[in-house]
Specification:
Layout: E1 3-8, H1 15-26, E2 30-35, H2 42-47, E3 52-55, H3 65-81, E4 86-90, H4 92-101, E5 108-113, H5 118-121, H6 128-136, E6 139-142, H7 145-154, E7 162-164, H8 179-189, E8 194-199, H9 209-220, E9 225-230, H10 236-245, E10 252-256, H11 261-267, E11 270-273, H12 282-289, E12 294-297, H13 303-306, E13 314-316, H14 321-332, H15 336-354, H16 356-368
Parallel strand pairs: 1-2, 1-4, 2-3, 4-5, 5-6, 6-7, 8-9, 8-11, 9-10, 11-12, 12-13
């Protein structure tokens, strides 16, 4: 059995990463989580499964030369002190540290990349730290075929460095919806209304503002609709202003971040996701777990790998998301049997592609290699 380190900047929960840590621990490995932040939500859960948790937090801005130098030295020292044999680093701040630190430790290091083209969209792909991360990396795990293709074709990363493994989920980590809470939410949002749900960071490439346009058009068609939008971010004030300008104060509910996400999925009739920025989208899988029909964009992340238009989801053109979504909802919102079938199919395909029972063997191969 090996000593396996999960290195990250996690504070919030990450159910796919939790799944791996808990599974490895149950197999007899010694599993450690080291976060560059407090880990104040994820670490208490991991501790319940006997996983060691540590944080190394530096004050001030989380960037800059000396910030990363100090993290690199700590990472190297930590790996030696704990006799770490395998490292899975997650997200860019940890991946940069691990890409350099791997040359000074004995452990095998895998950088886990959770984005496709975010660096290009946000224009940090020219930054030295980003270039160094993937040039120095020995092995990179990506969570979609699209990500591997993008790295090889656009970033010129050698294909032999890149390993595609789907996200792995123990879906039991999601609590079942609480029936009383679901009924309370439905009463709050409108028992007889068409309830749309969205969940994302409020950023320009997630495009939460398009959901307001969908609601506005449906309202113009005299469809009694409510939008529940979970999340926070830099666009929050812009969204509030647009809600007011479109006179949608009665139709739109901004919830902020919520812990009991499955209760919210259980309330909705459709889950809408206009995002242009995904690799392997978590919220689509959560909607599938709730057996809810999803409207998303073609050609984003891994959607085309497992979403099939009119079979287990509704897929729209990226540019025409609003008009196509309105048309889909208008044509299907009264067809309850069809919507149930699509939700059921999504549920089955999410389990087929992402349940841990189908994914863990690929990690066993890495851990034993």
């Amino acid at each position: 059995m090996a000593t396996i380190l999960f290195y990250s900047p996690f504070n919030q929960r990450s159910r796919d990463t939790e799944t791996l840590m808990i599974a490895f621990k149950k197999e007899g490995h010694s599993v450690i989580s080291l976060s560059q932040q407090e880990g104040y939500i994820i670490h208490p859960l991991l501790q319940q499964f006997g996983i060691e948790t540590y944080s190394y937090i530096l004050p001030g801005k989380r960037s800059g030369f000396w910030y990363f130098i100090r993290h690199i030295f700590f990472f190297i020292k930590f790996c030696y002190q704990h006799n770490v044999e395998i490292v899975y680093s997650h997200l860019e701040p940890a991946n940069f540290v691990a890409s350099i630190g791997q040359y000074f430790i004995r452990a095998k290091v895998y950088l886990c990349r959770h984005h496709i083209n975010e660096s290009n969209l946000y224009q940090f792909d020219k930054d030295l730290y980003y270039k160094l991360t993937y040039r120095l990396a020995k092995k990179i795990i990506v969570v979609s075929n699209h990500a591997k293709q993008y790295m090889v074709e656009k970033e010129k990363i050698p294909a032999e460095k890149i390993i595609h493994i789907n996200l792995a989920y123990n879906f039991d980590l999601y609590p079942k919806p609480n029936e009383n809470t679901v009924e309370e939410l439905k009463a709050k949002f409108g028992v007889n209304k068409l309830i749309l749900l969205g969940a994302c960071r409020f950023t320009k490439f997630k495009r939460p503002d398009l959901l307001l346009d969908v609601v506005y058009q449906l309202k113009q068609k005299n469809i009694d609709v409510t939008l529940v939008l979970m999340g926070k971010g830099e666009m929050e004030e812009e969204l509030k202003a647009k809600i007011s300008n479109l006179h949608l104060n009665e139709q739109v509910h901004l919830t902020g971040f919520v812990e009991n996400v499955m209760d919210y999925y259980a309330t909705c009739d459709f889950f809408l996701h206009p995002s242009l920025l995904e690799s392997s989208c978590v919220v689509i899988k959560e909607a599938g777990l709730a057996k809810k029909p999803v409207i998303a964009c073609k050609g984003i992340g891994d959607f085309d790998d497992y979403l099939v238009h009119l079979k287990n989801a509704f897929l729209t053109n990226q540019v025409n998301f609003v008009n196509e979504s309105v048309s889909i909802i208008e044509n299907y919102y009264t067809r309850k049997k069809d919507l149930m079938d699509i939700g059921e199919n999504l549920y089955k395909d999410v389990f087929l592609n992402f349940d841990q029972s189908h994914i863990l063997q690929q990690y066993h191969t890495l851990n034993q290699g």
